[in-house]
Specification:
single chain; Creatine Kinase, Chain A, domain 2; six-stranded antiparallel beta sheet; four-stranded mixed beta sheet; 16 helices; 20 strands
């Protein structure tokens, strides 16, 4: 039986400084994060001990010379009381959401990340020189050939053979762009020129399977860092998604992927949707805003991305009939079907729900009003401003404020998530310990907290089970532990 699909989203935000003579993105990202974080949380360092970005899910460790592993141990790296990680990664400020138990919560804590970046900009305003302004964008490309990621993470049963994940997920990832794409003017990375496309990331993928995340980007990433019990779990690290502003796009991105993973774990998918040329297909799908161009499957059959998504939905609906699903999963199925139906008949009717449609409609309005060609710098700027995280300036937020974008969440939900963790995963224990005991926590990671309670040695509290450490599991324990030393004793009793 499939395990719970604990999930999360990591977003590398675009950063720029207006008026800066010598812009250093690493220093500026560090300044941004330091300006936001309270001193108590700055003292807690990130624990890298169990991390190994060179471990490959295909069963081997890559040699350091074969790849470019992340080494950000000397950069700003903060754990926040909502259970998230906020740090500098590849010259970008990155927000990694806490572990969530369902797609809706994933959207809530992803949106909380936008608020944290927005608040960071305000805090940095009082630090940077008067003539400089820091801008933050939740996008995936700087328009100069550089892409930065929005990565999803899903808890997966270790017993599932990795080749099975590859077989069933590649066609799904290639075709899901029809509702997950953030929309983009033009093409990059040597791809065939196009006026507008569905996805910001698709031009940057070059291989089907691989370990890298910043070059030779693979459709399926093989990094094997479970951040949990490695004998039971693996963490599927999905690097192919866009950074979405629209809540419905994020909700469907995570919710549909979680359902497909459950079907794979239960060996429910017997159909073979293997693509003949996946890397070419992902660009073909992204470049077709009419959604009618077909891609080839092994064996010669041709299908559109929407038709392929209908196949996955058909299987998911049957799976739901044969297996117990949650209320959120049921809602995902309904929305998935509704979106595919309208993509089939009238894609432009989805302007309230999907990023690429809403942005395209906005672009067309400006083109019609100002007689703009697609290569107009003004359209490039509009594209960028869609992703501005400032609620008073970003074009997404302008449409949201005028009622032209559907909102799944309430603002109080998002505001609460800025400072509070989900209550039904181990993120609750991490966040509450940071809130209560930060002065004696010397390090933390996804799967451990390290305490210095005044005696030797340091006390490491492992949190290898993502579904424990919930409010139901630990609230009484925390309330009975006014001091960290008491908590350690109570944990040992």
């Amino acid at each position: 039986m499939a395990i719970e699909k604990i999930c999360g989203i990591e977003t590398e935000y675009g950063i720029s400084v207006q008026g800066a003579v010598d812009f250093n993105p690493i220093l500026t990202s560090s300044l941004l994060i330091n300006a936001y974080a309270k001193p108590a949380f700055k003292r807690v360092r990130w624990d890298y001990e169990e991390e190994n970005p060179l471990r490959d899910a295909r069963g081997f460790d890559r040699a350091p010379a074969e790849t470019t592993p992340e080494d950000d141990s000397g950069l700003v790296n903060i754990i926040l009381p909502n259970g998230s990680r906020y740090y500098v990664d590849h010259a970008h400020p990155e927000y990694s959401s806490p572990e969530c138990s369902n797609a809706r919560d994933c959207v809530i804590w992803d949106k909380a990340g936008e608020r944290i970046l927005e608040d960071s900009m305000r805090a940095a305003y009082h630090i940077v020189p008067e003539h400089e302004r820091v801008f933050i964008y939740k996008n995936n490309s700087d328009g100069k050939g550089n892409s930065y990621g929005c990565h999803e993470n899903y808890l997966v049963d270790r017993k599932v053979p990795f080749p099975m994940l590859v077989k069933h997920l590649i066609p799904f990832f290639v075709s899901r762009q029809v509702f997950t794409g953030a929309g983009k003017v033009g093409a990059e990375n040597g791809a065939e020129n196009v006026d507008y496309q569905l996805s910001q990331r698709s031009d940057f993928f070059e291989v089907e399977v691989g370990l890298e995340t910043t070059f030779k980007r693979p459709i399926i990433n093989t990094r094997d860092e479970p951040h949990a019990d490695p004998d039971i779990y693996r963490r599927l690290h999905v690097i192919i998604g866009d950074a979405n502003m629209c809540e419905v796009s994020t909700y469907l991105k995570v919710g549909t992927t979680a359902l497909v993973l459950k079907m794979i774990e239960d060996d429910f998918i017997t159909d073979d949707f293997t693509l003949a040329e996946p890397v070419r297909a992902i660009k073909t799908v992204s470049h077709d805003t009419n959604l009618r161009t077909s891609i080839e499957l092994v064996g010669g059959r041709r299908t559109t991305a929407i038709e392929l998504q209908w196949e996955y939905l058909r299987l998911a609906k049957k799976y739901a009939q044969d297996n117990e699903i949650t209320e959120v999963e049921g809602d995902v199925l309904e929305r998935w079907e509704s979106v595919l139906d309208r993509l089939d008949t009238d894609p432009m009717s989805l302007g309230r729900e999907l990023d690429w449609v809403a942005k395209l409609q906005l672009m067309q309005a400006y083109r019609d009003r100002d007689s703009l060609e697609w290569d107009s710098p003004k359209l490039k700027m509009i594209d960028l401003q869609w992703h501005d995280v400032r609620r008073e300036k970003g074009l997404y937020y302008k449409l949201l404020g005028s009622g032209k974008i559907e909102q799944l969440l309430s603002e109080p939900e998002i505001a609460h998530a800025v400072d509070n963790p989900p209550t039904d995963t181990r993120a609750y224990f991490r966040g509450e310990c940071l809130r209560r005991f930060s002065e004696v926590i010397v390090a933390a990671s996804w799967d451990a907290l390290i305490f210095d309670i005044g005696d030797e040695p340091l006390r490491k509290v492992p949190t290898l089970e993502p579904m424990r450490g919930t409010k139901a599991h630990v609230d009484a324990l925390l309330d009975a532990s006014p001091e960290a030393s008491t908590l350690i004793r109570n944990l040992g009793s």
